[in-house]
Amino acid sequence: MAHPKRKTSKARRDRRRSQNFKLSMPGIVECPQCHEVKLAHRVCKRCGHYKGKEVVSNDN
């Protein structure tokens, strides 16, 4: 079996492995109530609605 002629440096090894750990874009959707962009499956920070119901009151 073949074996490496030289030691692979940590930088070269980590550069090669970094392709496996790329971050993906989070799911960003539009809120159906206020039409503000928000993260999917989370309460809207602007209006406090989730799944058509107000779960957080925004009384300022």
Search tags:
single chain; alpha+beta; two-stranded antiparallel ribbon; Ribosomal_bL32; Large ribosomal subunit protein bL32
Give the overall shape: rod-shaped
Low-confidence stretches: none
H/E order of the elements?
HEEEE
* Proportion of residues in β-strands: 15-25%
Q: Provide the structure class.
A: alpha+beta
Strand tally is: 4
Helix content: 10-25%
Number of helices: 1
Write down the Rg. 23 Å
Specify the biggest β-sheet: 2 strands, antiparallel
Euclidean distance between termini CA atoms: 71 Å
The overall pLDDT average reads 88
Spatial order of strands in the largest sheet = 1-2
Biased composition (Basic residues): 1-19
Organism: Oceanirhabdus seepicola
Pfam families: Ribosomal_L32p
GO molecular function: structural constituent of ribosome
